[in-house]
Structures are given as C-alpha cells and as structure tokens.
What we know:
Order of helices and strands: HHHHHHHHHHHHHH
Oligomer: single chain
Shape: globular
Structural class: mainly alpha
Strand content: under 5%
Amino acid sequence: MSLMSKAKELSPAYFGLVMATGIIAIAAHQQQWPFIAQALFAISCVSWVILTFLYSYRALRFTKAFTEDLISHSKGPAFFTSVAGTGLIGSQLMVLYSHYWLAFVAWVIALVLWLLLTYTVFTALTIRRNKPTLDKGISGAWLLAVVATQAVAVLSAYLATQTSQPWKLELNFLALSMWLWGGMLYIWMMSLIFYRYTFFQFVPGDLAPPYWINMGAMAISTLAGSLLVINSPNAPFLQSLVPFIKGFTIFYWATGSWWIPMLLILGVWRHVVRRFPFAYDPLYWGAVFPLGMYSACTYVMLQAMEFSFLDALPTTFFYIALLAWGVTFIGLCRSLLRLRQQK
C-alpha cells in the first residue's frame, strides 16, 4: 500500500513529530550540543514539509474523512499539533539561527492556523447534534489547544526580541494575551479531564500517550511566561505585571512537575500491571514533546527567575527526552519500512 493511499488514514496528531523534534532541538542548543540541535532542526523541517503536503492532499483527496476527523471530539483537537509544530519551527529559526523573517513567516502561518482551527473545531463541537459522553469524548489531546496557543505566545515573544518599536510592544502584548488565554483554557479543560480521571471507569486503553500533554501544556506555559519576564525591560506594561507573571509561571511549572510522577505511575500501571502492549503509535510523539519542553522551559525559567538550585533538571530531562525521541523515531522508521514492504 502506497504512502499516498495511506493518507486517508493519516492521524491528525502526526505533527506531534515536528513538535517533539523541534523542542528537543532547542533543548540541545541550550545544552551546548549544536550538532544534535542542527540535525533535529533539519528533521523537523523535512517532517513539516512532508506532513503539510500529506495533510493538504488528504484534505483535497479525502475531504469527507478529513472533515469527519476535524469535527470529532476524539480527533479534532489533535489538529492543533499543526499550529504548535509550525510555531516551534519558527522558534527554532530564532533560537538556533536568528532568522527573523523566516520565523516571521512561520508565525503568520501558525497564527492563521490557530484562528482557523480554534473557531472551526470548537464551533463544530458545540453545535453538533450527536455528542459523546464525557468519558468517551475528552482526553489529554484536548490540551493540544493550550499547547498551540502557547506556541504562538512563545514565538511572538521570541520575535519581539528582534523587533523595533512600536511592533515590539504589540508583539509582547499579543504574547501576553495568548499566554493568559492558554492558561484560562487549561483550567477549563483540565477540570473536565481530572473529573473524567476520577469519576469514570479507567482502563489501560484509555491512558493514551497524549495524557502526557497534561504536563506538556504546563511546560510550554512556563516557557512563555519566562520569556515574558525576560522581555519585560523593553515593555513597560510588562514591568508592572512582572510579579503576577512570575507567580503564575512558577505555578505552571510546579503543576507540570506534579504531573510527572503521576503519569509515570499510571504508565507503570498500564504497561506493567495491566500488561497493555507497547507498540509504535503516532500518538507517542505527544509523550516525547512534554519531556523536551520540560527541559527547555526549566532552562529558560532559571534565567528569568535567577534560580540556581534547579540547574540539574534541564540537563537530566534533555537526555531523557533525547532517549525517548530516539526510541519513538526508530518505531516510526520500522512502521514506514513495514508500509513499504506491503506495497
């Protein structure tokens, strides 16, 4: 079976590959591994181009299947990986190479995608007649909407560092607004997800890898808040909000940190206690991304808050994320090899 014919079944979450690869490239740059950073940047860019082509082909060739996924409670939120992936392409361009205009193009694409998906997906989920029950309709994948929002905030903050006034002020204001909106959305969604966790039957199959986005959404919110603190000297309205931004940034980081042991325990329950099979799934990129983001966000938070007692965390999680990326990437290559053999 050809790759093009498989496009009909392409998971909406596959841009998680771009997200995970991109943020680990940034973490590698922070940890002084330029070769790894550049290699991962190249992989993320090639993946973005290929996936953009495949999703466009799917939308045109298999419009019905594409639309059904877009307005689905279980699959629709996964499309937000395209926003976050594009935003992280732009962030890599800024952090690794300081390519302002290419990053600006990525920012425009990410912002347009964010507007289209936010008001398409949530409007469709609101007005559709037949809706699933809460335990069937919501998962950690819904928090990808938060990740997408914060990815735009992060890229806006990075662009603001190389933009002259008055656009510097406006980009910082957009970054602040998106950061606040993402936080509000997290509180809404996490309340429902936690309720689903504790008051509905939970089986191993329900604990899909996107539940790691519970932590990843907080990690990227931490990164966006830390960048706002760093940018505050050049934005007077941010200076007056610095205590508020610092407080909420630490709140986000602490919440993300709380999730790590919980998710590990649930993972042991899923795969060891209940012996759920461990096999490659594109959704696993949604578990790799939070590990890389936790490393990157903690590194920037230490700069913004001038902490020193957490210095070991970014390095430790970078190596964990890199290992997880390698294992998942091998799974992807084996999956593509099997697809080639089926032709």
